[in-house]
User: Which sequence fits this backbone?
């Protein structure tokens, strides 16, 4: 089983990744680190613990960085709802039993890399602050990372600003640090995740499971589907789970080698990512960029796995 470390800023779509991979028998999640992003570190940690607890997983959760490397946090509760986990009715319950590990996320990831015999795959679905700090502290351990598969950036327009996707806008220096660390990188940006849409019908399928927690997840999804229009649910890009789905079903995606960079200095384009594909300019590619997905298949498989995970805890 492939060993995975998850690094996330748990809002709704990060929670779906936890359900998806936690329930899979193909991967072994050895730890989850939290980071400030969608919401404060306290909330991303509480949301993560609640997801792990309510899906009945036995995965340690570590608190990570409460601030980005070179700016103040820019959380988006205004868009996502209270605690970064808005709902149309039932809220995600606070964790009743689970607490974060004593060890902080950076130390825990360093220790895990030191101890691991097989290289670790990292799935990053929030700002990359924790990984950047590990890369700065322990460059010698980068060879223990098989790859970093991340949701962030875009080969095209942004969502937080015209130019920048939220995770890269929230800590551009962190992504830049990780790029320069020389780790194999696979980027699942907005150009890809916009091809994978979760719909109101998926919310109905989840609700039909019939358990109290399935009702909660359906209510959270309904709120997610109203991010663009609070009055009406409509199909919405399934951002983080697209990157997670690649770890289970790579055959549903096409990636292209290129040179990835991130804008650090622009006044309008800070946090924007650039993907260079021109053959004469990419002697030494530093990333694989996800370009195409069988979007309906990805969304349907993700939802079906979430339903299975919900049934398993009924
Ligand atoms: C990314 O930003 C966050 O709001 C989501 O969780 C996802 O990681 C999409 O731009
Ligand atoms: Ca996220």
Assistant:
């Amino acid at each position: 089983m492939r060993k995975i470390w998850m690094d996330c800023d748990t809002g709704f779509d990060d929670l779906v990744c936890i359900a998806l991979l936690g329930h899979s028998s193909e991967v072994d999640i050895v730890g989850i680190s939290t980071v400030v992003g969608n919401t404060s570190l306290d909330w991303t940690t509480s949301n993560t613990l609640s997801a792990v607890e309510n899906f009945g997983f036995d995965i340690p959760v570590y608190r990570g960085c409460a601030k980005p490397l070179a700016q103040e946090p820019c959380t988006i509760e205004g868009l996502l709802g209270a605690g970064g986990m808005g709902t149309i009715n039932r809220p995600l319950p606070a964790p009743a039993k689970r607490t974060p590990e004593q060890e902080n996320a950076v130390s825990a990831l360093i220790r895990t890399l030191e101890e691991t015999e097989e290289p670790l795959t990292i799935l990053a679905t929030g700002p990359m602050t924790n990984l950047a700090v590990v890369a700065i502290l322990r460059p010698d351990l980068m060879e223990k990372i098989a790859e970093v598969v991340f949701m962030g950036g875009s080969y095209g327009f942004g969502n937080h600003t015209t130019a920048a996707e939220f995770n890269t806008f929230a800590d551009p220096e962190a992504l830049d640090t990780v790029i320069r660390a020389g780790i194999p990188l696979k980027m699942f940006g907005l150009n890809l995740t916009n091809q994978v849409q979760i719909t109101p019908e998926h919310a109905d399928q989840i609700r039909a499971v019939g358990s109290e927690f399935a009702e909660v997840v359906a209510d959270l999804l309904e709120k997610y589907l109203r991010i663009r229009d609070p009055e009406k649910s409509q199909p919405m890009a399934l951002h983080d789970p697209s990157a997670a789905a690649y770890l289970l079903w790579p055959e549903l995606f096409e990636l292209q080698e290129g040179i990835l960079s991130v804008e650090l200095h622009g006044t309008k384009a800070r946090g924007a990512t650039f993907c260079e594909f021109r053959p004469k300019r990419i002697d030494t590619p530093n990333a694989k960029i996800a370009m195409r997905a069988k979007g309906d298949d990805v969304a349907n498989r993700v939802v079906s796995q979430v339903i299975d995970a919900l049934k398993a805890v009924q």
